[in-house]
Amino acid sequence: MGVLGFTRSFNGFSIIRNKIIAYSFDYLHTRALSSFSTNFNGHDLKLPVLIVGAGPVGLVLAILLTKLVLFQVFRKLDGLAEEIQKSQPPVDSWRKFIYCTSLSGSILGSVDHFQPQDFEQIVSPVSVAHFSQYKLTRLLVKKLENLNFHILNCEGLGGSDAGRPVGEREILLGHEWVLVAHDLKDGEFILQIPFYPPQQNVEDFTHEICERIIFKLIGKELADINVIDIKPWVMHAEVAEKFVSCDERIILAGDAAHRFPPAGGFEIFLTLLSGLCAIDAHNLAWKLASVVRGTSPHSIIRTYETERRPVGVLSYTFSFSLVFPFYLKSCAFELPFLENFQIAISNTALSVQNFRAAMAVPAALGLDPTVANSGKVGSILPYGLQRGILDGLFILGRAQLSDFVLNENNPLGSSRLAKLRCIFEEGKSLQLQFPAEDLGFRYLQGAVVPSSVMDVPDAPTGRRWDYVPSADPGTRLPHMNVRASSNLSNEESYRLAHAAFKVAEEFKVSAKVCVMWPHGTAEVGSKAALSPWQNYVDVMEVKQKSTSLSWWKLCQMTDRGAILVRPDEHIAWQVKSTVLGDPVLEMRRVFSAILGVK
Predict the structure, then answer these.
(1) pLDDT per position as a tens digit, 333-370
(2) Where in the numbering of this chain does the FAD-binding domain appear (predicted)?
(3) Taking a C-beta distance cutoff of 8 angstroms, is the pair 492, 574 a contact?
(4) What's CA 87's distance to the chain center, in Å?
(5) Domain coordinates of the chain in residue numbers?
(6) CA dist 217 → 94, 210, 212, 524, 577 (Å)
(7) What is the pLDDT of residues 26-59, one digit of tens each?
(8) Most buried of 117, 171, 345, 379 (most Cβ within 10 A)?
(9) Chain-centre distance of CA 583, in angstroms?
(10) Which CATH number describes the domain made up of 469-595?
(11) Burial 382-416 (b: 16+ CB within 10 A, else e)
């Protein structure tokens, strides 16, 4: 596929040093490729990177590369996280999943997905946000408005354009409508309705028909309903065979590299998938920057594929099996893959559990999801009869949700309502937060220096597991509340810090030493010990509660340990005790392994 095959209506971005270069693809469409040379002058530069696709992934990658000093993703993009938190709807308007027969009908139950500890910022300085992608894109574009825009040649290509439909797939039978309230204040909603080709077509859902569906959902007719748009979406689950090709000069990220369906069609999993795409950009940006600076060879780009593609494959399995559990029966991983990425097993187990959780509520109400698997039985019948059978199934399904059936005086309804209460109270319904998948993934190969004894944790077998902070190589640096101080102890020799500064200069890498002191320590500072280097900071741990474990114990680190953190905040190397031998030689070994320098 040529470059124009990716263009559609997006903008393209390219980066040269501290400049970002953008142009509308309408420009490309109005000119033949052969005529491009007439549009460039002698002052045009040859760019190191061109980003095709100005969605969230492309924009994040553009911003990170423009800075060339890589910063947690949204939190460090010039206050973007704060803007999202400020602009999103109030948490109280979206923290619950409410199950009801209609918006004005009986409430069957609700699940609050936030607990008091979720707001204490223990595992992360930011919390889950509910923010539409088109609004996020606008914020990202604002970050680029003050930068210079030009059209230039390029020698590398990063594809992050949004995925395209490649075919149709039937959606699970059971006329269960899902209403996502994106912004109650602005009256912004998305209603997701399953439809069943070939018995139904997109053309069947006119504005008038959709208004009737909305009225049924609300429970009465309203005069101020405005159907803005009606679009079909198709279940996608694809991962590119390669994320990097052509001598590390063509790179795929985001939807260009992997496309996933929302979990069960409910948009719940999108938080994880959006994070997955942004992490692609975070992982790739510092490696591209190191190549542009001449710090690393092109081969470091291969570690992007080594680290991110397996995560994409695993998330692909996770999300796809949420909707189609039978897919797991045909999914197999080679043993080396499982050895290197044990998370595959946990995500597979999690996907099965989440699908069951998503289907638990309709199943308890008598809406059997397995009916979808027999949906083609009537395919040999005349088309009109097939439509009649489908309509009959819908009528039967809606009858299961009537007040006549679902009430405590009806033995059948009482039994079903009791099952629902158990599902909600025991946390067996579909969840909103996936902290272990958002924060707990780990790179066991790539731009990391594994520990001498690689401790690969056993795969969890349950559906919901708490995020367990770890300081092992390849994991994300766990969050710690700290405060800066110039009045801290000088007990350690700082030999390793000296070595890190010295080797960083040799490799032309910007390094910062953070000397972390336990809670309650207060003597003298590090200025004399680290002279003549200035790029350091003394910090003291701030404990959240008197009963909480210290960060060091939580991560199983010793007070003589050291951690080397990459620009994307993944731990590249760690040592839990004093380095034996020459620390400079050890630092050279570590930097060489991470940067791919021989």
Answers:
(1) 343 343 334 443 444 445 556 667 777 888 888 877 55
(2) 188-312
(3) no
(4) 20
(5) 4-89+114-165+235-325, 469-595
(6) 18, 10, 9, 67, 62
(7) 333 333 333 334 344 444 556 677 787 777 788 8
(8) 171
(9) 37
(10) 3.40.30.120
(11) eeeebbeebeebeeebeebbeeeebeeeeeebeeb
Q: Spell out the residues 6+ positions from residue 537 whose beta carbon is closer than 8 angstroms to its own.
A: 484, 512, 513, 514, 515
Which of 537, 542, 529, 540 has its CA nearest to residue 490? 529
CA-based nearest residue to 432, from 314, 259, 311, 262 = 262
The label of the residue with tokens 């939190």 reads 75
User: Would you say 342 and 348 are in contact if contact means Cβ atoms under 8 Å apart?
Assistant: no
Lookup: tokens for 347: 């995500």
Q: Which of 327, 312, 344 is nearest to 241 (CA)?
A: 312
DSSP 8-class letter at 238? E
pLDDT of res. 382: 74
Decide if 430 contacts 269 (C-beta within 8 A).
no
Structure tokens at 303: 């570690």
Can you tell me the distance from the alpha carbon of 64 to that of 15, in angstroms, rounded to the nearest whole number?
Answer: 10
Distance CA(554)–CA(568), nearest Å, equals 21
Per the structure block, which two tokens stand in for 358?
């998503």
pLDDT above 90 for 593: yes
571 three-class SS: strand
Contact assessment for residue 441 and residue 311, using Cβ atoms and an 8 Å cutoff: yes
Taking a C-beta distance cutoff of 8 angstroms, is the pair 262, 269 a contact?
yes
